[in-house]
Write a structure and sequence with these properties.
Order of helices and strands: EHEEEEHEEEEEHE
Strand order of the largest sheet: 9-6-5-4-3-2-1-10-11
CATH class: Alpha Beta
Largest sheet: 9 strands, mixed
Number of strands: 11
Helix content: 10-25%
Strand content: 25-35%
Radius of gyration: 15 Å
Number of helices: 3
Structural class: alpha/beta
Distance between the termini: 24 Å
CATH architecture: Alpha-Beta Barrel
Number of domains: 1
Shape: globular
Oligomer: single chain
Length: 183
């Protein structure tokens, strides 16, 4: 089955401006089949994602966290929870404002502590091709890292796989997807 999804979405559970319901509605309206709610770990309130269990939507809604990791400075890694599996994505490397070689060193260091499965090659939905290098031996995903309505739908992944959380995670981990960009 052909699926389209967003792997980095913020809501009012942390620093986003859209509620969970609003984010789901916006992405459904853009033709997305799944989204991953990845609010910041240090801002999420207990029970914030409880609303996901009672949503009236055909969309698959992952929950997760944007983890704050310290490795010679603060970095972000998305943890996206499936039904039985978990996906870890090194987020927005261009925002570190370091030479690519230094960022790659940090990615490798974090990979020794967390089971990294992929690296974002976008910043707020805009392509950062310098991170599409073979020196990063991980699948490269496009995300929009949306915090506002205007940020929704700038970049996403598409794949052909079964329509369930763990199949989506396996497709990303196996690099069986492609990146897409608006405009």
């Amino acid at each position: 089955m052909h699926l389209k999804g967003a792997l980095h979405v913020h809501t009012t559970c942390s620093d986003g401006t859209l509620s969970i319901d609003q984010a789901v509605s916006v992405y459904a309206g853009l033709g997305f089949d799944f989204i991953a709610l990845t609010d910041h770990d240090y801002l999420v309130r207990r029970g914030c994602y409880d609303r996901v269990n009672s949503l009236d939507t055909a969309m698959i809604v992952f929950t997760g966290l944007e983890l704050t990791v310290f490795e010679k400075g603060y970095l972000h890694v998305n943890r996206i929870d499936g039904d039985h599996d978990t996906l870890y994505i090194f987020n927005h490397p261009a925002e570190l404002d370091l030479p690519v070689a230094k960022v790659i060193e940090r990615i490798h260091a974090v990979a020794e502590r967390l089971p990294l499965d992929a690296v974002e090659i976008t910043t707020k939905g805009f392509r950062t091709p310098e991170y599409e290098t073979d020196e990063i031996d991980l699948p490269k995903v496009a995300t929009d890292d949306s915090h506002t309505l205007m940020g929704c739908g700038r970049a996403w992944v598409e794949m052909d796989c079964d329509r369930d959380k763990d199949s989506i995670i396996r497709a990303i981990r196996s690099n069986l997807f492609w990146n897409c960009y608006a405009g």
